[in-house]
Design a protein that fits this description.
- This protein is an alpha+beta fold and 504 residues long.
- The chain folds into 3 domains: 179 residues, no CATH class; 91 residues; 98 residues, no CATH class.
- The strands form 5 sheets. Strands 8, 9, 12, 13, 14 and 15 form a 6-stranded antiparallel beta sheet that branches.
- Helix 2 runs antiparallel to helix 3 and helix 10 runs antiparallel to helix 11.
- The radius of gyration is 32 Å and the shape is elongated.
């Protein structure tokens, strides 16, 4: 018998492999989106099809490499699972006075193992085909959406690309889309294929051994957090033949052999031989305790299953924002929003674990390529964002005026002038009059571009100012805006904002 914990841990090598694939595919799509020239409609279809072809080729190559590694991993998984599943069963048969044959000495069990490996590998071959198709359509939809937003003028190129990348990173790479419209994403599909394939093979091995040993009765495994439809039969004794006068039919009671039943989709239940006169492994008192509401979270009592569902939801959001962080990074776009959201969900997880006493499952939060350096960068960006948001609140509630007048000062750089009215320059050293602080330090108005300024130039967050001043020439008035933080006064942040003819 495979224990629920063993079955829960089994997919981890496959998940690590395919999460690397997923991030590589999303990053490739993000880079392509950021470089895309969203040209007028006459040439758009040709350009889109060309880019889709390149993307599909990359997806197929990446999945093909993973498939080769997956076969070797599956072989190891199957052999280890077979040994673990049969080891505990052997002990029960020996206690009953029987001597079971080893796996290597049973042609029937060897055939079952080979068939299980072949069938499970077939699931991954099919997953490669469906993922290539579904992920390509996913990329096509992202391209079309961005093009429509840009061509309609509703969004800038950067805004449209950001939204497209966010959409791709939100749930990950689509693996299978069913006729109903439901989509399974790659990590879900990989976990299901691994757990289902390995567990079903182990159960068929146990069946084959039970046939050789003439064992009709089995006891089902039990664990906390079982889905409600499985909790009703877990830990019970059944007859495989369905002919025993005392015990109910195994297949009929548990749904064994169906997707919804024992050993079906993502199921962590198993069974093991039982002989009359043995003490059941799971007494009724223990089974009853498995369904108790013994966790408290935000004032609500939860069962193990309910608590695990909350934890899985938080883990999904953590992975989501890690994917978006990596995708934005690949596209050369700001990652601070993803960093802030990731920080929020990490805090939510910390709070959940503190309230419930459950343990963190770091492997379920993992995203390939998001290591220590990414975590440090993300934490730094999240903290900066918090400081900036707090600064905005302080300024809003400060009671300071919306703008603050300052004395005249000399223009620190030469500003180019290129307008329909006049071309030329406003020279360095010219006197700026009507100088005032538009936003930032000394006012009640926060600077909207503060994140960029701090990231690029540094300086104390609360000390940045956005300033305005006028320069009067012989015939024209020039309005100039710039950012300044004490001695930090970047030349590239001086902008001409308006030119007006002076009426005589």
């Amino acid at each position: 018998m495979l224990t629920p914990k063993q079955l829960s841990d089994l997919p981890e090598p496959m998940l690590r492999l395919y999460r690397e694939v997923e991030i590589d595919i999303i990053a490739d799509m993000a880079r392509r989106l950021s470089r895309m020239d969203f040209i007028p409609s006459a040439r758009w279809q040709f350009k889109k099809l060309e880019e889709l072809g390149y993307s599909r080729e990359y997806i197929l190559q990446r999945l093909a490499r993973a498939l080769g590694i997956a076969k070797r991993e599956l072989e190891k998984l199957m052999e280890n699972a077979a040994d673990m599943a049969l080891e505990s069963d052997y002990e029960i048969y020996r206690r009953a006075g029987l001597e079971p044959p080893p796996l290597s000495a049973s042609p029937v069990m060897q055939a079952v193992l080979e068939a299980g490996l072949e069938n499970t590998f077939g699931l991954f071959e099919n997953l490669t085909r469906t993922t290539a198709n579904t992920a390509t359509r996913q990329f096509e939809h992202a391209l079309d959406r961005a093009w429509l937003q840009i061509s309609s003028g509703a969004f800038s190129h950067t805004e449209a690309v950001k939204m497209a990348i966010k959409g791709l990173a939100s749930k990950g790479v689509a693996a299978i889309t069913y006729p109903t419209g439901h989509t399974d994403y790659l990590d879900v599909a990989v976990r299901r294929a691994t757990v289902t394939g390995v567990n079903q093979t182990a159960l068929k091995l146990q069946e084959a051994l039970a046939d050789e040993m003439g064992c009709d009765l089995v006891e089902t495994s039990a664990h906390e957090g079982a889905r409600p439809s499985h909790a009703v039969w877990q830990g019970k004794i059944f007859s495989r033949s369905g002919t025993h006068p005392k015990y109910p039919d195994f297949r009929q009671s548990t749904g064994y052999g169906t997707g919804e039943g024992l050993g079906g989709w993502n199921c962590r239940h198993s069974f093991f031989p039982y002989f009359e006169g043995m003490e059941p492994v799971y007494p009724d008192s223990e089974l009853a305790g498995m369904n108790e509401k013994k966790y408290e979270y935000n004032g609500k009592k939860l069962t193990q299953y309910e608590a695990e569902q909350v934890q899985r939801n938080i883990e999904r959001h953590i992975r989501k924002w890690k994917r978006e962080f990596k995708a934005m990074e690949a596209a050369g776009l700001p990652t601070d929003e993803a960093a802030a959201k990731l920080n929020q969900w990490h805090r939510r997880m910390d709070d959940f674990l503190k309230q419930t006493g459950l343990k963190q499952q770091a492997s379920r939060e993992a995203v390939f390529g998001f290591g220590r350096s990414e975590a440090a960068k993300s934490n730094s960006e999240a903290k900066l964002l918090e400081i900036i948001e707090q600064d905005a609140i302080i300024k809003k509630n400060s009671g300071n005026p919306k703008k603050r007048s300052l004395p005249d000062e000399d223009l620190k750089v030469t500003v180019n002038v290129d307008t329909p009215l006049v071309q030329g320059v406003v020279p360095k050293g010219t006197v700026l009059t009507n100088v005032y602080v538009m936003a930032g330090d000394g006012t009640s108005v926060p600077i909207r571009d503060l994140r960029r300024l701090v990231n690029v130039y540094g300086g104390k967050v609360s000390s940045w100012q956005k300033k305005s001043g006028d320069v009067y020439g012989e015939n024209f008035k020039y309005v100039i805006h710039w950012y300044q933080n004490g001695d930090i006064c970047p030349e590239e942040e001086f902008k001409l904002k308006g030119v007006r003819k002076i009426e005589s």
